[in-house]
Structure formats: C-alpha cells, structure tokens
Amino acid sequence: MPDPPHAVDPVQLGAYFALIEVSGLLRHAIEQQLREAGDLTFVQFQVLMRLDQAAEGSRRMTELADAIVHSRSGLTYQAGRLEKAGLITRTPSPDDERGVTVTITDAGRALIARVLPGHEEVVGRMLFEPLSREDSQKLSDLLLPVRDHMRAAPPRSAAPRRRGAPG
Amino acid sequence: MPDPPHAVDPVQLGAYFALIEVSGLLRHAIEQQLREAGDLTFVQFQVLMRLDQAAEGSRRMTELADAIVHSRSGLTYQAGRLEKAGLITRTPSPDDERGVTVTITDAGRALIARVLPGHEEVVGRMLFEPLSREDSQKLSDLLLPVRDHMRAAPPRSAAPRRRGAPG
DNA sequence: GACCAGTGCTTCGAACTCGAAGCACTGCGG
DNA sequence: CCGCAGTGCTTCGAGTTCGAAGCACTGGTC
Question: For this UniProt entry, which segments traverse the membrane (chains A, B) (predicted)?
Fold first, then answer.
C-alpha cells in the first residue's frame, strides 16, 4: 500500500528527536543562567523580551501568550508576578475594554539589559558553537518556514469554545 | 573592542527564536494528540518510546531522565504513574542495589503501537510538511552535532553535590 | 435599545515540575 | 574489616502549569 500522507522516515525521526532534545537542553541551560543572573524564569524572560522589542513596549495579553507559546491562564499568572516585581504594568486597553495592555517598565528594561549578555553567551556557547555562520543561516532558513507553517495552522489555544456538541 | 567570544548575530537570534517557537508549538500539538489518543503526557510518551527502543525494553532511571531531559524527581513521579497504569515495571538493578531498572510491559508496548501512527501524523504534518526530503536531511545534519555538543557539556543535573562552600 | 453569540482575560482546582534534603548502597582508602 | 565520600533514587515543599468555567465587554441583529 502507499505511504500515508505524512509518514515519518528515519532521517526525519532523527531530526525530530534532535530538535526536542536540543530545545530541552537549551532551555534548561538558559533557565539556570536566568535564575542566577536575574531570578527570572524563561517564560518571564520571554515576556520581557517581547515587550522590550515591541512598539511602545506594549502588547496585549493574548498576543503575548501566542508569541511565547504559553497558555493564557499561565500568562495571567506570570503577568501577576512580573507586575508585583515592578517589571511590567497592566492597564485596560483603550480601544477594547475587555483587553489588557501589558507594558514594560524602566526596571523591566534595565533587568533585560542586565541579563541579556549572559543569556547570549549561553545561547552562543550551547547552540551556535558547533555551527558555522553558514550553518546558522541554513538553520534559520529551515526553521522560519516551519514556524510560519505551524503558526498558519489554527492554534489550539484559539479554538472556538464549544457550546453544544461539535458535530 | 572585539566581539565577545560567543556573540549572537541577528541571523542566529532569528534561528534561536524560531527553534524555541517551533519546539513549543510542536510540543503543544503533540500533547493534544497524545492526550486524545492514549491519555499520555509527552514526558510519559518519551519514557515509553525510549524503553520500547531499548534492549530488553529496560533502562535505568538516571539514563531515562538524561535521555528525555527531565529532572530525576520528575521522572520518579512519572514512573510512579506509569507503573500504576501497568505500562512499566520497576525492579532493583541486579548489578547495583541502589539502581532501579525500568522495563516496559506488553501493555506499554501496545499503547505505544496504538498512539504512534497519530503521533507520526502530527509530527509529519506540523514539522515536515514544509520541508523537502533534502531539507529534513539538512536539519538533521545541523541538529545532531548541536545535540552532541550540548550533551558533551557537563549536564547540570549531574553536577556534583556540594558539601561546603563552593569557592 | 435589547438581545446574544463571540472574545479577552481571570479564577479555580488538579496535576505536574523542580531543587534540596534524605536514605540506601557502593567502592575506595586505610 | 571499617569509615566515608560519592552515587542512585525517592521524598518533600513550594511554585508553576494547564484547561474548564466564569465574568466583562463587544459588535452584530432586530
């Protein structure tokens, strides 16, 4: 019989396993560094990074949750912690009363600036040391389309809430 | 001044972010499928997979924890769940009374066989659909050395326990 | 203007995670 | 043989995660 539409061959299986392992190991190393350098979790760091990059230093909650691939309730929890630590503020969104706009504070930007060098050092040493400049480019060229492909698929977290039976 | 030893250029930053996003999105999609197909978490699935692949269907606890990049205490917890579900057994290791050998049961193998097709379908669709066969090969060629490089670095989980002040 | 499905965020409870501390055993030095 | 640092796993407590349910508001229809 013919192969199923998306069968996974041994090479792909190896790539898949390596991807999972690499991201796990990398994440673990990063968490160590962030904890020591600024008492931040990786999720918190990612939130601050996204805000730091954003126009006005602001984003909506849902936007952030999607960007860092985290549940909405989990983001609410972490936003609470970050707000308590004075690293972000939460204000009602001007154009939509339901929405909450999260904004990074000066203290938040300062903390990012403080931990970023060590962060980059870890990423450089763990992830890019065995890769040439060309390799890095190739890796980026491979992963960006995959990311876009995954993002294009309807995210489960945004699935419509079912009221009755779905079928 | 010269660049620091492991500075991260914009291309690398993009690759790094894409890697984190891709692994997060992939993991999320996989968790959905595993939950629906066999009421397994991704960690549990990985444990069973590693055991299924292993000689005799057996591995030591520490080996497993390292392989799937999970804390030892977390693995103890999950091993408890899997044992209760009849998917693995835990026995004292013959050559080292301290050690615990984990073995997959027939039920465990059956469960893996049951969820694997759907799992591969998800991985194929999410991760490999936008990649040619050649791309997949390239991705594997890039990630495997990175994995080996990360593994070569002393894993934090295996760091010697400090008894007094470290320095 | 009143309805009402849809959306944005938070609350809630249960489950899972981690590191530190603890216990049991190993294997080397004397 | 005994002591003792080192290792393998589990226990423990605190913190974090998720999805489901709940609340508040929006934007369409009539």
Answer: none
Residue B11 in domain:
no
Global pTM reads 0.88
**Side-by-side strand order, sheet with A58-60:** A58-60, A100-104, A88-92
State the Cα–Cα distance between residues A130 and B131, nearest whole angstrom. 23
Distance CA A70, CA B21 (A): 10
CB A161, CB B35: distance < 8 Å: no
Q: What is the pLDDT along chain B (167 residues), one digit of tens a residue?
A: 555 556 778 899 999 999 999 999 999 999 999 999 999 999 999 999 999 999 899 999 999 999 999 999 999 999 999 999 999 999 999 889 899 999 999 999 999 999 999 999 999 999 999 999 999 999 999 999 999 999 987 544 434 443 333 32
- Domain CATH for B142: 1.10.10.10
